[in-house]
Protein backbone atom coordinates (compact mmCIF):
# COMPACT_ATOMS: atom_id res chain seq x y z
CA UNK A 1 0.00 0.00 0.00
CA UNK A 2 1.36 3.41 -0.99
CA UNK A 3 0.10 6.90 -0.25
CA UNK A 4 -0.75 9.08 -3.25
CA UNK A 5 -0.49 12.74 -2.37
CA UNK A 6 -1.81 16.07 -3.57
CA UNK A 7 -1.45 19.56 -2.14
CA UNK A 8 -3.90 22.38 -2.87
CA UNK A 9 -2.99 25.93 -1.87
CA UNK A 10 -6.09 28.12 -1.88
CA UNK A 11 -5.22 31.60 -3.14
CA UNK A 12 -8.70 33.13 -3.29
CA UNK A 13 -11.70 33.07 -5.64
CA UNK A 14 -11.21 30.31 -8.26
CA UNK A 15 -7.44 30.37 -7.96
CA UNK A 16 -5.45 27.55 -6.39
CA UNK A 17 -2.05 25.98 -6.85
CA UNK A 18 -2.40 22.22 -7.21
CA UNK A 19 0.78 20.19 -6.67
CA UNK A 20 0.53 16.61 -7.88
CA UNK A 21 3.14 14.16 -9.16
CA UNK A 22 5.86 16.79 -8.79
CA UNK A 23 3.98 19.20 -11.09
CA UNK A 24 2.49 22.61 -10.25
CA UNK A 25 -0.88 23.45 -11.82
CA UNK A 26 -2.61 26.81 -11.41
CA UNK A 27 -6.40 27.05 -11.68
CA UNK A 28 -8.17 30.12 -13.14
CA UNK A 29 -5.57 32.81 -12.31
CA UNK A 30 -7.01 35.93 -10.66
CA UNK A 31 -4.46 38.21 -9.00
CA UNK A 32 -6.05 41.68 -9.27
CA UNK A 33 -6.76 43.76 -6.15
CA UNK A 34 -10.37 44.41 -5.07
CA UNK A 35 -12.47 46.58 -7.38
CA UNK A 36 -15.01 46.72 -10.19
CA UNK A 37 -14.71 44.56 -13.30
CA UNK A 38 -16.98 45.52 -16.22
CA UNK A 39 -18.80 42.76 -18.12
CA UNK A 40 -20.63 44.46 -20.96
CA UNK A 41 -23.14 46.85 -19.43
CA UNK A 42 -22.82 45.15 -16.04
CA UNK A 43 -19.96 44.85 -13.57
CA UNK A 44 -18.66 42.23 -11.18
CA UNK A 45 -17.27 43.48 -7.89
CA UNK A 46 -14.25 41.86 -6.27
CA UNK A 47 -14.08 42.34 -2.50
CA UNK A 48 -10.68 40.84 -1.57
CA UNK A 49 -7.32 40.44 -3.24
CA UNK A 50 -5.30 37.22 -3.57
CA UNK A 51 -3.53 35.60 -0.65
CA UNK A 52 -0.25 35.74 -2.59
CA UNK A 53 1.05 37.69 -5.55
CA UNK A 54 1.59 35.89 -8.84
CA UNK A 55 5.38 36.07 -8.55
CA UNK A 56 5.14 34.30 -5.18
CA UNK A 57 3.24 31.42 -6.80
CA UNK A 58 5.11 30.99 -10.06
CA UNK A 59 6.67 29.05 -11.64
CA UNK A 60 3.89 26.68 -12.67
CA UNK A 61 3.90 23.86 -15.21
CA UNK A 62 0.41 24.51 -16.54
CA UNK A 63 -2.72 26.59 -16.11
CA UNK A 64 -6.12 24.89 -15.97
CA UNK A 65 -8.31 27.68 -17.33
CA UNK A 66 -12.01 26.85 -17.10
CA UNK A 67 -12.89 29.89 -19.24
CA UNK A 68 -11.54 33.30 -20.11
CA UNK A 69 -14.66 35.39 -20.77
CA UNK A 70 -15.48 36.35 -17.17
CA UNK A 71 -13.10 38.50 -15.10
CA UNK A 72 -13.75 36.55 -11.91
CA UNK A 73 -12.05 33.57 -13.59
CA UNK A 74 -9.36 35.39 -15.57
CA UNK A 75 -8.58 39.00 -14.68
CA UNK A 76 -6.03 41.49 -15.96
CA UNK A 77 -3.18 40.16 -13.80
CA UNK A 78 -4.17 36.60 -14.64
CA UNK A 79 -3.76 37.30 -18.35
CA UNK A 80 -0.16 38.30 -17.68
CA UNK A 81 0.37 35.04 -15.80
CA UNK A 82 -0.70 33.04 -18.86
CA UNK A 83 2.33 34.32 -20.75
CA UNK A 84 4.64 33.08 -17.98
CA UNK A 85 3.39 29.47 -17.97
CA UNK A 86 4.41 26.99 -20.70
CA UNK A 87 0.98 25.34 -21.09
CA UNK A 88 -2.52 26.81 -20.77
CA UNK A 89 -5.34 24.31 -21.24
CA UNK A 90 -8.81 25.67 -21.97
CA UNK A 91 -11.72 25.84 -24.42
CA UNK A 92 -11.84 26.40 -28.16
CA UNK A 93 -13.54 29.73 -27.45
CA UNK A 94 -10.65 30.80 -25.23
CA UNK A 95 -8.23 29.91 -28.03
CA UNK A 96 -10.22 32.07 -30.46
CA UNK A 97 -9.95 35.05 -28.11
CA UNK A 98 -6.46 34.54 -26.68
CA UNK A 99 -4.71 32.89 -29.60
CA UNK A 100 -1.87 30.40 -29.34
CA UNK A 101 -1.38 31.17 -25.66
CA UNK A 102 -4.14 28.57 -25.17
CA UNK A 103 -4.00 24.89 -26.04
CA UNK A 104 -7.50 23.55 -26.67
CA UNK A 105 -8.48 20.50 -24.61
CA UNK A 106 -11.87 19.28 -25.90
CA UNK A 107 -14.32 17.38 -23.73
CA UNK A 108 -13.13 13.80 -23.11
CA UNK A 109 -9.79 14.42 -24.86
CA UNK A 110 -6.58 14.00 -22.86
CA UNK A 111 -3.06 15.31 -22.82
CA UNK A 112 -0.08 14.03 -20.83
CA UNK A 113 2.52 16.01 -18.91
CA UNK A 114 5.86 14.37 -18.06
CA UNK A 115 6.44 14.06 -14.33
CA UNK A 116 9.79 14.56 -12.63
CA UNK A 117 9.61 10.94 -11.38
CA UNK A 118 9.44 9.61 -14.95
CA UNK A 119 5.71 8.96 -15.10
CA UNK A 120 3.04 11.14 -16.67
CA UNK A 121 0.08 13.16 -15.43
CA UNK A 122 -2.91 12.68 -17.72
CA UNK A 123 -5.29 15.67 -17.92
CA UNK A 124 -8.71 15.09 -19.46
CA UNK A 125 -11.10 17.86 -20.45
CA UNK A 126 -14.64 17.34 -19.14
CA UNK A 127 -17.92 19.20 -19.62
CA UNK A 128 -19.09 22.10 -17.48
CA UNK A 129 -22.39 23.99 -17.63
CA UNK A 130 -22.10 27.52 -16.27
CA UNK A 131 -25.74 28.01 -15.30
CA UNK A 132 -29.24 26.54 -15.72
CA UNK A 133 -30.21 24.53 -18.80
CA UNK A 134 -30.50 26.71 -21.88
CA UNK A 135 -28.11 29.47 -20.78
CA UNK A 136 -25.01 28.26 -22.59
CA UNK A 137 -25.38 30.93 -25.30
CA UNK A 138 -25.47 33.61 -22.59
CA UNK A 139 -22.58 32.50 -20.38
CA UNK A 140 -20.28 30.97 -22.98
CA UNK A 141 -18.15 27.84 -23.17
CA UNK A 142 -16.61 26.43 -19.96
CA UNK A 143 -14.59 23.32 -19.21
CA UNK A 144 -13.51 21.20 -16.27
CA UNK A 145 -10.60 18.82 -15.84
CA UNK A 146 -9.78 15.36 -14.47
CA UNK A 147 -6.19 14.64 -13.40
CA UNK A 148 -4.82 11.13 -12.98
CA UNK A 149 -1.73 8.97 -13.36
CA UNK A 150 -0.03 5.88 -11.98
CA UNK A 151 0.42 6.24 -8.24
CA UNK A 152 -1.57 9.49 -8.15
CA UNK A 153 -5.02 10.31 -6.81
CA UNK A 154 -7.73 10.98 -9.39
CA UNK A 155 -8.73 14.64 -9.11
CA UNK A 156 -11.73 16.45 -10.58
CA UNK A 157 -11.53 20.23 -11.04
CA UNK A 158 -15.06 21.37 -11.85
CA UNK A 159 -14.61 24.88 -13.21
CA UNK A 160 -17.78 26.98 -13.15
CA UNK A 161 -20.32 24.17 -13.37
CA UNK A 162 -23.87 24.33 -11.99
CA UNK A 163 -25.23 21.01 -13.29
CA UNK A 164 -25.42 17.76 -11.36
CA UNK A 165 -26.30 16.00 -14.63
CA UNK A 166 -22.85 17.03 -15.88
CA UNK A 167 -21.29 15.63 -12.71
CA UNK A 168 -23.15 12.34 -13.23
CA UNK A 169 -21.89 12.11 -16.81
CA UNK A 170 -18.30 12.59 -15.65
CA UNK A 171 -18.66 10.00 -12.90
CA UNK A 172 -20.27 7.51 -15.30
CA UNK A 173 -17.56 7.93 -17.93
CA UNK A 174 -14.39 8.32 -15.85
CA UNK A 175 -15.34 6.60 -12.60
CA UNK A 176 -15.08 7.78 -9.00
CA UNK A 177 -12.52 10.39 -7.97
CA UNK A 178 -10.39 10.68 -4.87
CA UNK A 179 -10.39 14.48 -4.64
CA UNK A 180 -12.99 16.93 -5.98
CA UNK A 181 -12.07 20.60 -6.35
CA UNK A 182 -15.54 22.10 -6.65
CA UNK A 183 -16.34 25.67 -7.69
CA UNK A 184 -19.29 26.56 -5.47
CA UNK A 185 -20.84 29.80 -4.13
CA UNK A 186 -24.20 29.66 -5.98
CA UNK A 187 -23.17 32.65 -8.10
CA UNK A 188 -26.07 34.73 -9.39
CA UNK A 189 -26.23 37.60 -11.86
CA UNK A 190 -29.08 39.04 -13.99
CA UNK A 191 -27.85 37.05 -16.98
CA UNK A 192 -29.65 33.87 -15.82
CA UNK A 193 -32.62 32.88 -13.70
CA UNK A 194 -30.77 30.49 -11.43
CA UNK A 195 -27.34 29.82 -9.94
CA UNK A 196 -24.35 29.91 -12.27
CA UNK A 197 -22.23 27.63 -10.07
CA UNK A 198 -22.95 24.83 -7.60
CA UNK A 199 -25.03 25.61 -4.54
CA UNK A 200 -23.66 24.27 -1.27
CA UNK A 201 -26.31 21.55 -1.24
CA UNK A 202 -25.43 20.56 -4.79
CA UNK A 203 -21.70 20.55 -3.94
CA UNK A 204 -22.45 17.98 -1.25
CA UNK A 205 -24.53 15.93 -3.70
CA UNK A 206 -21.76 16.18 -6.32
CA UNK A 207 -19.40 14.75 -3.70
CA UNK A 208 -21.70 11.77 -3.25
CA UNK A 209 -22.13 11.24 -7.01
CA UNK A 210 -18.36 11.32 -7.56
CA UNK A 211 -17.59 9.11 -4.59
CA UNK A 212 -15.01 11.71 -3.57
CA UNK A 213 -13.29 11.08 -0.25
CA UNK A 214 -11.97 14.66 -0.15
CA UNK A 215 -13.44 17.96 -1.34
CA UNK A 216 -11.73 21.34 -1.59
CA UNK A 217 -14.20 24.11 -2.54
CA UNK A 218 -13.09 27.12 -4.57
CA UNK A 219 -14.83 30.22 -5.92
CA UNK A 220 -17.34 30.77 -3.11
CA UNK A 221 -16.12 34.10 -1.75
CA UNK A 222 -14.37 37.39 -2.62
CA UNK A 223 -17.00 38.49 -5.19
CA UNK A 224 -20.38 40.08 -4.49
CA UNK A 225 -22.29 37.83 -6.89
CA UNK A 226 -21.83 34.79 -4.66
CA UNK A 227 -24.96 34.05 -2.63
CA UNK A 228 -23.57 31.19 -0.51
CA UNK A 229 -20.24 30.79 1.24
CA UNK A 230 -18.19 28.90 3.80
CA UNK A 231 -20.96 28.68 6.41
CA UNK A 232 -23.48 27.20 3.98
CA UNK A 233 -20.89 24.71 2.72
CA UNK A 234 -20.22 23.52 6.27
CA UNK A 235 -23.95 23.20 6.96
CA UNK A 236 -24.74 21.41 3.70
CA UNK A 237 -21.95 18.84 4.10
CA UNK A 238 -22.97 18.22 7.71
CA UNK A 239 -26.61 17.74 6.70
CA UNK A 240 -25.53 15.26 4.02
CA UNK A 241 -23.38 13.29 6.47
CA UNK A 242 -20.24 14.27 4.55
CA UNK A 243 -18.62 16.71 6.97
CA UNK A 244 -15.48 14.59 7.24
CA UNK A 245 -14.83 14.93 3.50
CA UNK A 246 -14.84 18.74 3.42
CA UNK A 247 -11.57 20.69 3.51
CA UNK A 248 -12.17 24.43 3.83
CA UNK A 249 -8.83 26.28 3.93
CA UNK A 250 -8.48 29.97 4.53
CA UNK A 251 -6.83 32.00 1.73
CA UNK A 252 -3.13 31.18 1.56
CA UNK A 253 -3.45 27.89 3.43
CA UNK A 254 -2.42 24.51 2.03
CA UNK A 255 -4.51 21.34 2.10
CA UNK A 256 -2.35 18.21 2.00
CA UNK A 257 -4.24 15.05 1.11
CA UNK A 258 -2.91 11.48 1.10
CA UNK A 259 -4.93 8.73 -0.53
CA UNK A 260 -4.21 5.01 -0.10
CA UNK A 261 -3.27 3.27 -3.35
CA UNK A 262 -2.94 -0.49 -3.88
From TrEMBL:
<dbReference type="InterPro" id="IPR036866">
    <property type="entry name" value="RibonucZ/Hydroxyglut_hydro"/>
</dbReference>
<dbReference type="Pfam" id="PF12706">
    <property type="entry name" value="Lactamase_B_2"/>
</dbReference>
<feature type="domain" description="Metallo-beta-lactamase">
    <location>
        <begin position="24"/>
        <end position="220"/>
    </location>
</feature>
<dbReference type="InterPro" id="IPR001279">
    <property type="entry name" value="Metallo-B-lactamas"/>
</dbReference>
<keyword id="KW-0378">Hydrolase</keyword>
<protein>
    <submittedName>
        <fullName>MBL fold metallo-hydrolase</fullName>
    </submittedName>
</protein>
<dbReference type="InterPro" id="IPR050114">
    <property type="entry name" value="UPF0173_UPF0282_UlaG_hydrolase"/>
</dbReference>
Amino acid sequence: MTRARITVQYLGGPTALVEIGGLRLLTDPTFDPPGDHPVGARKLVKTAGPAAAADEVLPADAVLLSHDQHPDNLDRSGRIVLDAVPLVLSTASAHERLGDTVTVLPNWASTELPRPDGGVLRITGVPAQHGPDGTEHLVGEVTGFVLEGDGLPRVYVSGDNASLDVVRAIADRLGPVDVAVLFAGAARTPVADGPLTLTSEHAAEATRILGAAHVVPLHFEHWTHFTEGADTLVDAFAAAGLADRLHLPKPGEHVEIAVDED
